[in-house]
């Protein structure tokens, strides 16, 4: 791992927590190996203000780099998140977990804090296990961010996917471009006007009408 990419970790724990000790030991092992650079452990029974500050309601709660994790995490899971903390694939994994566990708001929160990380949603679309729940979740995130400009970094990646993915992926990419909105998505949409799939062409026509009317 690149030394500059080695993340720090924060653990919130409490007395009587059945999984906190195991997570603490797992993180301590990663610290000794140099997989994480620093470990801060906070007993929220003594410092409840830290949990309140972070909006944490359950322990163990771990933050490794950009990833916030609730509940039991095995040593292998902790290692995975630490080693992927600086990668777009790691962020795609994290978004997958959030979207498939009903925590779409966390994806939106990450996007508002660091818009460049939203590009991982496009990477996520290319995964074979990204089913309907994931695609609906991505759409819901983009609807919430519509008009903010925060998702604009996704446009070139979505535009490329709209030309090179399978029919479902092309249709989704065009739909997501329309959700981002604005005149800058129009050139990418026009490039798909002659798509071989009728559903894609229909989505593009409707999206262009909206984009060029903004």
List descriptors:
214 residues; alpha+beta; Glutaredoxin; four-stranded mixed sheet; 11 helices; 4 strands; elongated
In short:
The protein is of the alpha+beta class and 214 residues long.
Instruction: Note the overall shape.
Output: elongated
Q: Give the helices and strands as they follow along the chain.
A: EHEHEEHHHHHHHHH
Distance between the termini: 45 Å
Q: Could you estimate the helical fraction of the residues in percent?
A: 40-55%
Please tell me the overall pLDDT.
Answer: 92
Number of domains: 2
Q: What order do the strands of the largest sheet run in, or round the barrel if closed?
A: 2-1-3-4
**Biggest sheet, in brief?**
4 strands, mixed
Number of E-type strands: 4
> Which structural category fits the helices and strands?
alpha+beta
Strand content: 5-15%
pLDDT < 50 runs, ≥5 residues:
none
Q: Could you tell me the radius of gyration in angstroms?
A: 20 Å
Give the count of helical stretches: 11
Structure description:
By secondary structure, this protein is an alpha+beta fold. A four-stranded mixed sheet has the order 2-1-3-4, sandwiched between helices. The mean pLDDT is 92. It contains eleven helices and four strands, in the order βαβαββααααααααα. The relative contact order is 0.08. A hairpin with a 2-residue loop joins strand 3 and strand 4. The chain has two domains: 81 residues, 3-Layer(aba) Sandwich (Glutaredoxin), CATH 3.40.30.10; 124 residues, no CATH class. 55% of the residues lie in helices and 8% in strands.
């Amino acid at each position: 791992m690149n030394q500059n990419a080695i993340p720090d970790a924060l653990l919130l724990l409490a007395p009587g927590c059945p999984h906190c000790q195991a997570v603490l030991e797992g993180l301590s092992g990663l610290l000794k190996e140099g997989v994480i650079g620093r470990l801060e452990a906070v007993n929220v029974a003594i410092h409840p203000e830290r949990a309140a500050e972070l909006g944490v309601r359950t322990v163990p709660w771990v933050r490794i780099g950009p990833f916030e994790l609730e509940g039991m995490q095995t040593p292998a899971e902790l290692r995975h998140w630490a080693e992927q903390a600086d990668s777009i694939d790691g962020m795609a994994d994290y978004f997958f977990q959030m979207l498939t566990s009903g925590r779409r708001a966390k994806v939106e929160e990450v996007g508002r804090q660091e818009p460049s990380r939203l590009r991982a949603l496009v990477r996520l679309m290319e995964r074979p296990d990204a089913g309907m729940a994931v695609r609906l979740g991505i759409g819901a995130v983009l609807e919430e961010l519509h008009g903010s400009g925060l998702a604009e970094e996704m446009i070139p990646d979505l535009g490329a996917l709209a030309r090179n993915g399978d029919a479902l992926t092309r249709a989704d990419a065009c739909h997501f471009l329309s959700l981002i909105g604005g005149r800058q998505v129009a050139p990418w949409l026009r490039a798909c006007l002659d798509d071989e799939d009728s559903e894609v062409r229909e989505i593009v026509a409707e999206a262009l009408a909206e984009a060029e009317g903004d």
